[in-house]
Structure formats: C-alpha cells, structure tokens
Amino acid sequence: MNNQIEIRPEGAIVCWRTASGNRAVIKEALDKLGFGKLLPSRETPLAAGKRAMARWARLNNWRGDSRTEVLVRGSKGGVSIVAERKADTEDVAAKSINDYGTVSKLALGKKGLLTSYAEALCFDGGTLGGGKLGAWTAVPGELQQIYDDERNTVSAHALGWTIKEVLVRLNAVRVRPEGGVVWVPESEVPKVEALRDAIVKAAPGAAVYVIRTVMDTAALACIGDALKSEVEQIDSEINRYLDEERDPPPRYTEKVKAAQEKVDAYEKALKAQFGVVTGLAEKTEEKLTQSSFMDTVANALA
Fold it and tell me: Each residue of 27-36: pLDDT tens digit?
C-alpha cells in the first residue's frame, strides 16, 4: 500500500535582491526570453567616467584630511578628481576663499572614448600641489579597464527595475503592496527560472528566489487579495480624474483591459472564482464608459 501523497506545485512566489551585474550576460538572457528591450540603456560616458574615477581615487588612496575633501566632478570634456580645501577660518563669509586643486583629470572624446589623462605633480592629503597638472599622457591601462567595466555594468537599481518589468509581462501579481514579492502562474515559472539563472550568473551578490506554491485556501485568498489590490489601485486613480471632472488619460483603457484579462486568466488557470475582483474590475470599466472617451474604451475592450 502506497501511503505517499503527491503534492503538485502551482505557480511560485518570487522575491529578489539586486546587485550590479554584467550587461552582456543579462542582455543575452533577456533576448532569449523576448525581453531584451527592457534592459535600460548603457550608462552615459560621463556617468561611467565619474564612477570609474571614484574607483581610481580609492585605488590610489587619494584621500583628504580634516580640512580637505576629495571629490569627483564631471564636465562635457571629461572628469576630474578635485581636492577642495576648506578656508582657514570658520567665518561663514570666508567660504568663498576655499582652495581647490585638481588631483587628476580624464578626457572624454567622441562616442565615449577615453583620449588622455593627466595627474597632479604632487598630492598628499592636505597638500594641493598648487593645482598644477603634469603632462597629458595615454590613459593608464588599469583606469581604461575600470572605465570599460563601468560602461558594461548594469547598476543594482537598473537591474531591479528590469526584473520588475519582466515579471509584469509574465503576468505576475504583487502579493506585497510595496512590491518586491510577487506570485507568477505555473505557465510562466520556467521563464522566471531562466531569468533567475541569468541574474545569478551575471550579478554576483544578486538573487532571485523562486518558491513553488501549492494552491490551498490560504494561497487562493492571498492571490485574490493581490488581484483586488491591483484593480483597486487603478480604480482609485480613475476616481481622482472623475472627481475633478476630468477624463482619465487613454492609457487607462489598456490598464483596465489588462487587469480584466489577468483576472480571467488566473480564474481559468487556478480553476477558481474571484468574484469580488471581477465585480470591481467591471465597475471600474463602467466608470471609464461614463467618460467622454467611451468609444475608444469600448473598441479596445471589444
């Protein structure tokens, strides 16, 4: 006699933490999933140059003292590491005589190419070296490598945005109102697992947790509440426009349509009825119908 009980997973809870990662690896994975366009644009040369020079300053141990602060500043032509020495007096009016000296400077050319580099004749914390730079030279190989690394890195913030946008397109529903924890249907789990594997490979320190779920009463209630919260948010936004006797922007046509389709898809996949949610979605649709762009809405939802 077999006393084992088969437990069949249905969908998954997904949560994550982000870190900076390799752009090429992440893009390759997103392209395979059909979401390559969701990866944000590369950092601008100036932004990458500023981060590279900040790393360069730490690498060279360029630090100030109690009166001197080492800063990274960018301009159209390049990036400078600047030492700012505070005035000798605490008089507020004396702030205008703070001393400045350039520690090093990196020149940026067309298309983000590094062209040349110059370094201060001397710098040792509080000593600014008179602000005199040495001769312009070729960019040090290590600095070039740091810069290339920054240009080919996706920041932790950008990676988090991309993960959220991919999950939205995989029909995820937020089970935590503030975000960061979603549930995805069973049909989309393989794509989420592929995304997870790519993120972990490309961004050391990042993680995507795919926690399989079993549909019991509590799980269905959780998903139902999450769907209701999403529809309520759309409904609340539309109400603000109607209360001010303004027409909601046309984008709400697609928002309402997508919400209704998501509820229908979840009911079909989970063989459950989310009556409260369905009713709320229908009422929200009616409010759009009452606005002056009713014909547009009707055509889109037909």
Answer: 888 898 888 8
Give 181's contacts (C-beta < 8 A, 6+ positions apart). Answer: 13, 14, 15, 174, 175
The answer to whether 206 and 156 are in contact (CB under 8 A) is yes
Long-range contact pairs involving 118-122 (C-beta distance under 8 Å, separation at least 24): none
Q: How many CB atoms lie within 10 A of CB 275?
A: 10
pLDDT digits 0-9 by tens, 203-242:
889 999 999 988 888 888 888 888 888 888 888 888 887 7
Amino acid at 228: K
pTM of the predicted model over 0.85: no
Domain coordinates in residue numbering, the chain: 12-42+153-212, 45-151, 217-301
Contacts of 104 (CB under 8 A, 6+ apart): 53, 56, 57, 62, 80, 81, 117, 118, 119, 120, 133
